[in-house]
Design brief:
Strand content: 15-25%
CATH class of the largest domain: Alpha Beta
Bound molecules: FE2/S2 (inorganic) cluster, fe (ii) ion
Helix content: 25-40%
Largest sheet: 7 strands, antiparallel
Structural class: alpha+beta
Radius of gyration: 23 Å
Oligomer: single chain
Strand order of the largest sheet: 2-11-10-5-4-3-6
CATH architecture of the largest domain: Alpha-Beta Complex
């Protein structure tokens, strides 16, 4: 296999792998949309400047649709969950069995945060002096009302726009925003075969990161770093075979698993390829054995199809292509939402920590399929800036991979903040997703007030 790669052959390599799939692959994996144009360099100030952060808050965070929670986080009437973006507090509430609303999470009296924690309540009552609103945001009760001649009878909590897709609840702070459906555009068409509303949140872990939110998410938007950051994966991961596509406000990378990296200078056996992807100690036998004449890719796929059969049904599981059960099909939707396609089950979200330009929150959810009654959603486990990902063992093998990823990030933030560089440079093909998000960011920053781009 040649080690020479360029943008014109790159997508073709992954497509050839699909040709060899043991099943028919869905059309969505056949689509190719290499990015035309877009930035090849990015000013360092986007990661280090408090002024740039403030611009981003005004032009992006206060106006863009952003994922706030899962619908199953608030299954019952009265369930509520706080969401915070750049210091702005929002409360998402299930106000009726089929209605989800969101409000500014602040008391109109003297500004106390109404609800600090996820929970269930019959009303939204402020803990300071007890002014209460109904779940639909209408005013319910003002203690000593006689003392507030300026409070009108109608005194609702300021509402925040809400939309849902794929079992996710999105909010928008801009009353003049376009509907969520218009914002998402073609994205739902990419998930037709993998409806995320039919999954439940089995794992939810967050961690505070000592870097800008874009730096954090960009560490998860290309497979180019695998060769240096996760070299143990190379025998089993086609990092350099990744197909990258840009679709305007969203983009994707598809990295094959059970496929050897072109970086490798030795030829692993099929068993060694499989072992590179399995979480095990080297002194114990492989839990998955490639049969005589078999391949790592097929063995991994058969194993995963067998695991899914009791959950989604044998017929449906058996029809899933090797690609759908093996590969990392990772979307990014502007500005910060990273749902994975098919059966890799992961979702990432990245955002500023508080209103900081140099700290962020990374979250990882695992959305599992289920049969029968929907299991309860896992609560968020939050890790501090000094905590190790292995403190969240529910993430399994990801903990050690994430530790490798996040080890770099404070060092990048410090490097950029040192003032030694004016700009960073981006790979034309392999950093497509990062370039796509910066192209979109530039569009949002340039748009006039009051209009969606
Ligand atoms: S601040 Fe909320 S009731 Fe006074
Ligand atoms: Fe990584």
């Amino acid at each position: 296999m040649s080690a020479t790669l360029d943008a014109t052959t790159q997508g073709a390599r992954y497509q050839q792998l699909l040709d060899a799939d043991s099943r028919t692959v869905p059309d969505v994996l056949r689509w190719q949309s290499p990015m035309e144009g877009g930035p090849l360099t990015v000013p360092v100030g986007r990661y280090t400047s408090p002024e740039f952060h403030r611009l981003e808050v005004e032009k992006v965070w206060k106006r863009v649709w952003q994922m706030a929670c899962r619908e199953e986080d608030i299954p019952q009437v009265g369930d509520h969950i706080p969401y915070e973006i750049a210091g702005i507090q929002v409360l998402v509430v299930r106000s009726a069995p089929d209605r989800i609303q969101a409000f500014r999470n602040i008391c109109l009296h003297r500004g106390r945060q109404l609800k600090e924690f996820q929970g269930r309540a019959e009303e939204l009552r402020c803990p300071f002096h007890g002014i209460a609103w109904n779940l639909d945001g209408s005013l319910k009760h003002v203690p000593c009302k006689w003392d507030f001649p300026q409070i009108p009878d109608e005194w609702p909590l300021p509402s925040v726009r809400v939309g849902t897709w794929g079992g996710f609840v999105f909010i928008n702070l801009d009353d003049d925003c376009v509907p969520l459906e218009e914002f998402l555009g073609d994205l739902p068409g990419h998930f037709t075969d993998w409806p995320l509303e039919d999954r439940y949140k089995a794992v939810h872990v967050g961690k505070i990161m000592a870097c800008n939110w874009k730096l954090a998410q960009e560490a998860f938007m290309e497979s180019f770093h695998v060769v240096a950051t996760h070299p143990q994966l190379l025998p089993g991961m086609g990092d350099t075979i990744t197909q990258y596509d840009a679709f305007g406000h969203f983009a994707r990378g598809i990295t094959p698993n059970g496929s050897v990296s072109t970086h490798l200078r030795w030829s692993p056996t099929e068993q060694e390829m499989l072992d590179a992807l399995v979480d095990r100690s080297l002194d114990v036998p492989s839990p998955m054995v490639v049969p005589e004449g078999g391949t790592a890719r097929r063995t991994l796929a058969d194993n995963r199809r067998a695991g899914l059969a009791p959950v989604i049904g044998a017929e449906m599981a058996d029809a899933l292509s090797d690609a759908e059960v093996n590969d990392s099909i990772v979307y990014v939707v502007f500005p910060n939402f990273h749902p994975w396609g098919a059966y890799n089950r992961i979702v990432y979200r990245f955002r500023p920590y508080g209103n900081r330009h140099d700290m962020s929150i990374m979250e990882c959810m695992i959305l599992n399929p289920f049969s029968g009654e929907r299991p309860p959603a896992a609560p968020l486990r939050m890790l501090g800036v000094e905590d190790d990902w292995t403190d969240a063992p529910e993430l399994g093998m990801l903990t050690r991979v994430f530790n490798q990823d996040v080890f770099n990030l404070p060092r990048i933030q410090e490097g950029l903040a040192s003032g030694s560089l004016d700009e960073i440079v981006l790979a034309r093909y392999q950093e497509t997703k990062i370039r796509c998000m910066h192209a979109e960011l530039e569009r949002w920053l340039a748009r006039p007030a009051g209009r969606q781009p």
